């Protein structure tokens, strides 16, 4: 059973650029959630995808968007990057039937200069 | 709104000593409660969870937690800490009404001294 894999592991961007982060969910999981973890803070919910549709969103602006593909993998896109977007972005997958039990990936560390 | 408070930012314990990490939550409905651990450069690993039933739950690596509704707490305990337990620990709360969204505390960094 493979876990949740994320890519890239680290990346550096400049203000105003756009970034795409990728996530492959754990085998058998059909729901993907994205969290932002700023330095020294706990993860904050960005949004969740289920059956390729957004299924809940946290307090993040529209420049944060996502996709889920038929194989349940997912992308997080962030446009017009700001310095405060520097964070660890965590992807988590879950089995809809196993409510709230999330399996996390190791994250993508984004630095915005 | 849901919120989770972990009052201790840092805790240092001696190897072999007991450990208790505190977690208080604010939530109107019946919560689901979790403890996750994060090692440097790693994602979050689930230690244990509480959905319903027995209020004392056992997890991996010898950890346990007790749900106390009257105190809105879900403290994590371990009777004897090992050096490998040094990491950051996060308490999180969810609820059926909110799907799979979790609200996390700010974390407690555990240091283990030999």
Secondary-structure map:
The complex is a heterodimer of chains A (113) and B (114).
Chain A: E1 5-7, E2 10-13, E3 19-24, E4 31-37, E5 44-50, E6 53-57, E7 64-68, E8 74-78, E9 87-94, E10 103-104, E11 108-112
Parallel strand pairs in A: 2-11
Antiparallel strand pairs in A: 1-3, 3-8, 4-5, 4-9, 5-6, 7-8, 9-10, 9-11
Chain B: E1 3-5, E2 10-14, E3 19-21, E4 24-26, E5 32-38, E6 44-50, E7 56-58, E8 64-68, E9 73-78, E10 87-94, E11 103-104, E12 108-113
Parallel strand pairs in B: 2-12
Antiparallel strand pairs in B: 1-4, 3-9, 5-6, 5-10, 7-8, 8-9, 10-11, 10-12
What's the N-to-C terminus distance of chain A?
37 Å
Oligomer: heterodimer
Q: Using the alpha-carbon principal axes, give the shape of chain B.
A: globular
Number of strands of chain B: 12
Description:
The complex is a heterodimer of chains A (113) and B (114). Chain A has 113 residues and is an all-beta fold. In chain A, 0% of the residues lie in helices and 50% in strands. Chain A is built from no helices and 11 strands. In chain A, strand 4 and strand 5 (44-50) form a beta hairpin. In chain A, 40% of the residues are buried. Chain B is mostly beta strands and 114 residues long. Chain B is 0% helix and 51% strand. Chain B contains no helices and 12 strands. Chain B has strands at 3-5, 10-14, 19-21, 24-26, 32-38, 44-50, 56-58, 64-68, 73-78, 87-94, 103-104, 108-113. The chains are: A mainly beta (113), B mainly beta (114). At the A-B interface, strand 4, strand 5, strand 9 and strand 10 of A face strand 5, strand 6, strand 10 and strand 11 of B.
In short:
With 113 residues, chain A is mainly beta. Chain A is 0% helix and 50% strand.
Characteristics:
heterodimer, A: 113 residues, mainly beta, four-stranded antiparallel beta sheet, 0% helix, B: 114 residues, 12 strands, globular
